[in-house]
Design goal:
By secondary structure, the protein is an alpha/beta fold. It has a single domain, classed as Rossmann fold. About 35% of the residues lie in helices and about 20% in strands. Strands 4-3-5-6-7 form a five-stranded parallel β-sheet. It has a two-stranded antiparallel ribbon with strand order 1-2. Helix 2 packs across helix 3. The relative contact order is 0.18.
Length: about 200
């Protein structure tokens, strides 16, 4: 079984210009998603993250969420999705319980995450006026090189999921790169299952 990262690379080798996904009424090719996620992965590692570190992803649907997940997968980081409907107390719990070392968010949902994420040094925002936080767009725009990325085993943790129903304090459910190949897991976090 190949990882999601290797599946994307295989698809690119077959047809780099084929559309992988459509976001904001724009087609995104396999090559563009692969390049952008490689750049973001290299940037996250260069910022001081290491394989196994957790990265909170607090984004609405769009190309950036796909790029952010693949960046984490390529860098050996563990993605921690945060439902955009959650409020500050729930966000704070997830960030602290997961021990997230980085946060990737969107200006539209950042108000509830701002105070909860202040203890996190690496905060990246998407959208205009991302300052004083770092810009995820700038991270993606830097040059990345697959040779700088670690080898990530198929049984390495890839994602830590917290259920949206926060009536009890969930401990989170970890999926590996291998388990994410299952279609059911794909539906949980919105990244499309890659098929030829």
């Amino acid at each position: 079984m190949s990882s999601l990262v290797e599946s994307l690379r295989q698809l690119r080798r077959v047809n780099a210009d084929a559309v992988l996904t459509i976001a904001h009424n724009r087609p995104w090719t396999r090559a563009v998603v692969d390049d952008r996620s490689t750049s973001a992965a290299c940037g996250l590692l260069a910022a001081g993250l290491a394989p196994g570190d957790r990265v909170a992803i607090h984004l609405t649907n769009g190309i950036d969420v796909v790029v952010a997940y693949y960046a984490c997968f390529k860098a050996g980081l563990i993605a921690v999705p945060i439902d955009t409907r959650l409020r500050a107390p729930e966000i704070d719990y997830i960030l602290r319980h997961s021990a997230a070392r980085a946060y990737i968010g969107q200006l539209e949902v950042f108000a509830d995450a701002d105070a909860a994420s202040r203890h996190i040094a690496l905060r990246y925002l998407i959208g205009d006026n991302a300052r004083p936080q770092r810009s995820f767009s700038e991270l993606v725009a830097t040059h990345g090189d697959d040779a700088l990325l670690p080898a990530v085993p198929i049984d390495a943790p890839a994602i830590l999921l917290y259920p949206s129903d926060m009536t009890v304090r969930p401990k989170g459910v970890t999926h590996t790169h291998g388990s994410l190949q299952a279609e059911q897991c794909q539906k949980l976090f919105g990244v499309p299952l890659l098929e030829g």
